[in-house]
Amino acid sequence: MQTKKYIFHVHGMHCASCVARIEEVLKDIQAVKKAKVNLHTGEAAVEGEWKEDPDAIAKTLTSHVEKYGYTFSLEKEKKERKWNEFLYAFPIAAAFIVGFIFLQKIGLVNMITTGEVGYGTAFLIGLIASVSTCLAVVGGLALSLSANYAKEGSGWKPQMLFHGGRLIGFFILGGVIGLLGGSFRIGQTGNMILGGLVAFVMLILGVNLLDVFHGAKRFQFTMPKTIGKKIMREREVVHGITPFMIGAVTFFLPCGFTQSMQLYALSTGSFIRGAGIMLVFALGTLPILSLLSFSSVNIKEKSWNGIFFKTAGLVVIVLALFNLVNVLVVSGIIDPVFNF
Predict the structure, then answer these.
(1) Torsion angle (degrees, nearest 10) of CA 291, 292, 295, 300
(2) How many CB atoms lie within 10 A of CB 117?
(3) Which of 64, 229, 291, 297 stands 20 to 30 A from 194 (CA)?
(4) For 19, how many CA atoms within 13 A lie in the half-sphere containing its CB?
(5) What is the mean pLDDT of residues 168-177?
(6) pLDDT tens per residue, range 281-305
(7) d(CA 219, CA 201)
(8) What is the value of pTM for the model shown?
(9) How many CA atoms lie within 13 A of 240 on its CB side?
(10) Angle subtended at Cα 71 by Cα 40 and Cα 213, rounded to the nearest 5 degrees
């Protein structure tokens, strides 16, 4: 049978891990000989031995990836910006930020001040990550593992190992990053640069969550796809301590929010501080990812998801701006702007 190549539009992607997951799933399809996905163009070049017409092939490919939130089509996705959703998102985000500042004022949480990311902020960023990039990245992995656990009749233990491995892995590896930062003696200039990078990464992530400036994706930081692919390949293994190890190495999956916290952990120069920030961030992601593991919750299917993501995007943008302003204040470039 002659090999044919088709270009399909892929809907639902927003980061490098989406690319890694889709390519790994496509490789498992018998008819597919080669597949390459491009995040920036939103296209997938698929080569294989096909009897069906392109429309039927797109439906076949979709059947393999739709459980992760992706679809294939011959038509380019028409992006609706849905500006009216901001009528709800702006007041909700404003109320959230005001409430968060109030909690900071009475000492219950820490906003980003004096160039530092507080534990409360790290937890909040974890919560937002768990319903955005982590939902597709780690959430997809958790769903895949859960399905395999069910097939094996393994019960809840492997899932507990996965989430436990993730918390412990983030604590230990976050501490290692903190130590590395200390050994490099980053100094004030280095801290300013890293703080600026944290703010930039968060700002781009927030803008992408708004889903109105689609060209912003090209500025998002990514890790090599090979790292994500290596972890995705382990999704079929459910025995022994493998779930624990997979949970731990999700630290290296290319999730933008995780990368922003890793950059901050590096700037702390401290094992305890770096470990604490990454652990609290992982704890923030735990509720939603646990629900995904045990009940297959998917917020992307909800009718109000646009308002939710725009609200989350606005909150992340505000946090990024707080971070950027305070980095500039600590560096002596500008005078204090906020008095929280």
Answers:
(1) 110
(2) 30
(3) 229
(4) 21
(5) 94
(6) 999 989 888 876 665 455 555 667 7
(7) 9
(8) 0.59
(9) 5
(10) 40
